[in-house]
Write a structure and sequence with these properties.
The protein is α+β, with helices and mostly antiparallel strands. It is built from 19 helices and 36 strands. It has two domains: about 250 residues, Beta-galactosidase, Chain A, domain 5, CATH 2.70.98; about 400 residues, Alpha/alpha barrel (Glycosyltransferase).
Length: about 675
């Protein structure tokens, strides 16, 4: 993108970039350089039980060239002033693989800036190269630090911050008990700072009804002299000796991107090589969510970050995203690790809904996390034929089915009258439509939810397939599955020619037109006949589909909310009452493909994501949610795991069904 976007503080500040380190740490910001969220920063690092902490806030650049001075940074202050306005010098912004790149035009000179993180380390690199220039330039970089929980804001205070000059840069201890942070460079000369920069304005936080001012500490500045073709590299992090030699760190990042492509190509050679360029970008995006976490007894395990910048690990999200993030990208070992570890987290048949920052299980308030586990495992086995894993987790699976059938927490049980799964209790939300405003559950869905029972039916079929392959009896699973299939007919709403969202609830059957019924078509086996499946897809296409996903509620429903924003209670009230969810695009496309057998038409529903990836919100990734009303602006997290995963999964389903795309691939 060029100056028409980057040069506008309003437009450019709505476009965000993200880099990650495979540990849950990240750096992110806006294309303009203006901080608009509390989550923007150059280093947000996972620090064990302290969670993820903002350690390095930003770098402010000034370039002195040919008698002129160009302030390349940009800040919005609480007074309303925007100073400096370095975005006016941005000639171009783009992604080079996973690396965000800026080109600044300063007179007849072009300065290029790149930002990336080292895989497996809490270190962010920033590299500046003078691409063109008729004479040398001096670059000064001022570095601001912090030491706060990423969800908080800072008010300047007496932190007794220590800044000392060390070899190649500065060592900063922001406050008592804080880890040392190293601000280092290969060739630039450092000078310690020591003052607060106050009152950064955060307009996105204000829109969310949260604290909208932040302060950061100026730790020091660096100066380097560059001639055309020369570069200077900075490393900001907790590592004392990062790889600063020449292009070492940059080449490591580029090699990591190349490895990700190679894994994908090896797993799906024809699909990968014929994929449009934006699918290649999604393969890189997928790797941003898979992270190494702490497990018991000091071990490491793989996990999935649900979304950036504020989510952590969620059980349901992980199981939904796992096939797309790991299997579709040719990294089945990640899927195996997560499936193996998650089996050990089961309690009373349930999987955790949330995890603590320490990597341990949090709340178990989810009826469907365990059911999604069966789907992820089935996808893994289909691709790998790894029955050894199935054998190792089979007892946990059998116990879960038994507990769901007999009864477990939150009223979850199979109704003896029809074999369908009932779940829920007052004041608790245990399906994926989980918003609460205070103590008020927005979409209670107590009873027999349609997607929960589609998942239950498929979980039973999975067990009926696994059992004989392991030499175990399958009869009970087959009988339970057949009973659930027959009883699923009770979901059919003859009047509306689609499914009820919930049946047998406290107020009877819920005829709200929601997207949850799409899973009765998109999952591996459908309990509905072909005609019913087709009518569900038609209904969702006509009433719920938007270019970025499915609305969570029909826009003609009196409870529909077409915009998502404002304070927490207002946002929660709209979260599942019309807000568009991009992850639902995957199941919709797969369902459409199943009933129409038209891969070109199914793929057409995915194509609007190309524009979203390249020119809106989180560049190179897919947002969590969108407004229900046109133009369906992106909301929520700007990079969401299951959104990326399900679009990747749907793309390959279309390809495998015969789709051929005439656009050239990137790589």
């Amino acid at each position: 993108m060029g100056p028409e976007i980057c040069g506008s503080v309003e437009v450019g500040s709505e476009r965000e970039w993200l880099v990650t380190n495979g540990l849950g740490g990240f750096a992110c910001g806006t294309v303009t350089g203006v901080l608009t969220r509390r989550y923007h920063g150059l280093l947000i690092a996972p620090l064990g039980d302290r969670g993820r902490v903002l350690l390095v806030s930003k770098a402010e650049e000034v370039m002195r060239y040919a008698g002129g001075e160009y302030a390349l940074g940009a800040n919005r202050w609480s007074s309303g002033a925007i100073e400096p306005q370095g975005f006016r010098f941005i000639e171009r912004f783009y992604l080079a693989g996973s690396i965000p790149v800026w080109r600044f035009a300063c007179g007849d000179a072009i300065l290029e800036k790149r930002v990336w993180m080292q895989e497996g380390a809490n270190t962010t690199f920033v590299r500046y190269e003078l691409l063109y220039g008729s004479e040398p330039a001096e670059l000064e970089v001022k570095v601001l630090v912090n030491c706060r929980d990423m969800h908080a804001t800072t008010q300047a205070g007496d932190w007794n911050t220590s800044v000392s000059v060390v070899d190649r840069g500065l060592r900063v201890v922001a406050r008592e008990g804080a880890p040392p942070v190293y601000l280092l460079s290969d060739i630039a000369q450092a000078e310690a700072g020591g003052e607060w920069y106050r009152n950064y304005d955060l307009p996105v936080e204000r829109e969310r009804g949260l604290d909208d001012q932040d302060d950061h500490f100026f730790a020091g500045s660096f100066k380097a002299r560059l001639s055309a073709g020369e570069a200077v590299t900075f490393a900001f992090g907790t590592e004392q000796e990062p790889p600063l030699e020449k292009r070492a760190a940059l080449e490591m990042r580029e090699e990591q991107d190349q490895k990700l492509f190679e894994y994908w190509i090896a797993a799906h050679p024809r699909a990968a090589l014929e994929a449009p360029h934006w699918i290649w970008q999604l393969v890189l995006a997928a790797a941003q969510f898979t992270v190494r976490c702490r497990a018991s007894k000091g071990r490491e395990r793989w996990g999935i970050i649900a979304g950036y910048p504020w989510f952590g690990e969620w059980g349901r999200d992980s199981m939904i995203a796992l096939p797309g993030l790991a299997l579709e990208t040719g990294r089945p070992e990640i899927a195996r690790s997560i499936l193996q570890e998650y089996a050990g987290f089961t309690q009373e048949g349930l999987l955790p809904n949330t995890f603590l920052e320490s990597g341990q299980a949090g709340a178990y308030n989810s009826v469907d996390s365990m059911l999604w586990y069966f789907q992820a495992l089935q996808a893994y086995v289909t691709q790998t034929s790894d029955l050894k894993l199935v054998r190792s987790v089979f007892d946990a699976l059998a116990s879960a089915v038994d507990r769901y059938a007999r009864g477990t927490q939150f009223g979850i049980h199979a109704d003896s009258a029809d074999g369908l799964l009932y779940a829920g209790q007052a004041g608790v939300q245990i399906t994926w439509m989980d918003a609460k405003a205070g103590e008020h559950v927005i979409t209670p869905r107590i009873g027999k939810a349609v997607e929960v029972n589609a998942l239950w039916f498929n979980a039973l079929l999975a067990m009926a397939r696994f059992a004989p392959e392991l030499g175990k009896p399958a009869g009970d699973y087959k009988r339970l599955a057949e009973r659930a299939r027959r009883s699923f007919a009770r979901f059919w709403n003859q009047e509306r020619q689609c499914c009820f969202d919930v049946i047998d609830g406290p107020s009877g059957n819920d005829a709200s037109l929601r997207p949850n019924q799409i899973f009765a078509v998109s999952l591996g086996e459908s309990p509905l006949d072909a005609g019913q499946q087709k009518r569900i897809v038609e209904t969702c296409a006509l009433h719920l589909w938007t270019p970025h996903g499915l609305r969570s509620l029909d826009d003609e429903d009196p409870n529909y909310r077409g915009s998502y924003g404002g304070p927490q209670t207002q946002r929660d009230g709209a979260y599942h009452q019309g807000t568009v969810w991009s992850w639902l695009l995957g199941p919709f496309v797969i369902a459409h493909l199943r009933v129409y057998q038209d891969p070109a038409r199914a793929f057409a529903f995915l194509e609007p994501m190309e524009q979203h990836l390249s020119a809106a919100a989180g560049l190179g990734s897919i947002s969590e949610i969108f407004d229900g009303d046109p133009p369906c602006a992106a909301r929520g997290t700007f990079a969401q795991a299951w959104s990326v995963a399900e679009v990747l999964r749907a793309w390959r389903a279309c390809y495998d069904a015969g789709l051929r795309v005439k656009k050239p691939a990137a790589g």
